[in-house]
Specification:
three-stranded mixed β-sheet, 9 helices, globular, Phage tail protein beta-alpha-beta fold, 13-stranded mixed β-sheet, alpha+beta, Jelly Rolls, 3 domains, 30% helix, 358 residues
């Protein structure tokens, strides 16, 4: 890992230009790599660069910078919440960026580095937001067990945030950016809520899949077993879903639509927890969007075949071991086309959907 790569990801994230894959990669580096000094330098430079916007006393600004560069001890898990709140209040005044505050808080209060042999954090801590952070990079999947026993199978280029404990809480609330398959532990007294952009998914105990990548135009919630309630916070509307039903939220129009699916759709989603991704008569453009998120590779298709239905499946094996070409080639063949490797990624050529006059 080079310093330039960290700086690139850092600045992309802070300037809100990042892709979901880049966000996942940045936080994965923070978790797993020994980059403390480099990250402190980047954070320090950012504060110095925002000096003109600061409305704090010199003493407050010095304290922030000293915490970052290590001149004073980092706050421990035992520090009262009020002191942590003060530190974050300094930051919110110094730099008008929620993203920066999140990065700072994660760096200062984060749990210990992740164990490379497992997907769970090696330590728990009471961070300012009371959330732990698990991310996947391109081509990587993870299985996470939450404090209440809920199982989550996190797809590539995804981020999951959840509390170290649900004890003493009326609700079990977590955040998801990207895609995950959930088997929620049954607890009627404490509903389970997943926040994904403008969508809120509420359950008691069931299994379902959520796909909520930042760069995709749709958020999809597909129920395999049980019942969930999906709320559109943009319009304060909701739909109730049972097995073989799906909710689609369209980001551009903020519309929330309930759809019936066939009996094959639920088992297909169930396979995702084992790393098997199957598409049945899915739009080629949707498949391309997913593969871009999963592998972090730019993929384009000829305009004539973007809306063609595609049926295929692939297995996501060990981290980064899959070759995207081996997935794209059978897709191109099904379109009577070919895959061309370009400098910026891949292009699937084709003149028309199979079965249609060319």
């Amino acid at each position: 890992m080079s310093q330039s790569r960290l700086a690139y990801l850092f600045h992309r994230y802070v300037n809100k230009e990042h892709t979901p894959a880049e966000k996942a990669e940045l936080f994965s580096l923070i978790e797993k790599e020994d980059i403390d000094e480099e990250l402190k330098t980047l954070l320090g430079k950012m504060i110095e660069g925002s000096e003109a916007e600061m409305q704090l006393s010199e003493d407050a600004g010095d304290k922030i910078l000293k915490v970052i560069v290590g001149d004073v001890p980092q706050p421990s898990a035992e520090i009262p919440v009020s002191r942590k709140t003060v530190i974050l209040a300094w930051l919110s005044t110094a730099v008008a960026s929620v993203i920066f505050i999140g990065l700072f808080a994660y760096f200062i209060f984060r749990p210990g580095k992740s164990d490379k042999t497992g997907d769970q954090p090696t330590a728990t801590t009471t961070i300012a937001s009371s959330l732990l952070h698990i991310s996947t990079t391109t081509g990587e999947g993870k299985n996470i067990k939450l404090p209440d026993g809920t199982q989550v199978w996190l797809s590539p280029s995804s981020v999951l945030e959840y509390p170290a404990s649900f004890r003493g809480k009326d609700l079990r609330e977590i955040n998801l950016s990207g895609e995950g398959f959930f088997e929620v532990a049954h607890d009627p007294a404490h509903p389970f809520i997943i926040h994904s952009g403008n969508i809120e998914t509420r359950v008691v105990g069931t299994s379902f899949n959520i796909q909520a990548y930042d760069n995709q135009e749709e958020i999809n919630v597909m129920v395999v077993t049980g019942k969930v309630n999906v709320t559109n916070r943009a319009k304060v509307e909701n739909v109730e879903l049972v097995a073989n039903q799906r909710a689609v939220f369209y980001r551009k129009t903020t519309a929330l639509v309930k759809q019936e699916t066939d009996t094959i759709a639920a088992p297909i989603m169930l396979k995702r927890k084992k790393g098997e991704f199957e598409y049945k008569a899915q739009r080629l453009q949707k498949v391309i969007d997913d593969l871009h998120e999963y592998f972090g590779v730019k993929i384009q298709a000829a305009a004539a075949i973007k809306e063609c239905p595609v049926t295929f499946n692939f297995y996501l094996s060990d981290k980064r071991s899959d070759k995207i070409e081996e997935i794209l080639e059978p897709i191109a063949l099904s379109m009577n086309g070919s895959v061309q490797k370009k400098e910026e990624g891949f292009f699937i050529d084709g003149k028309a959907c199979p079965g249609k006059d060319k």
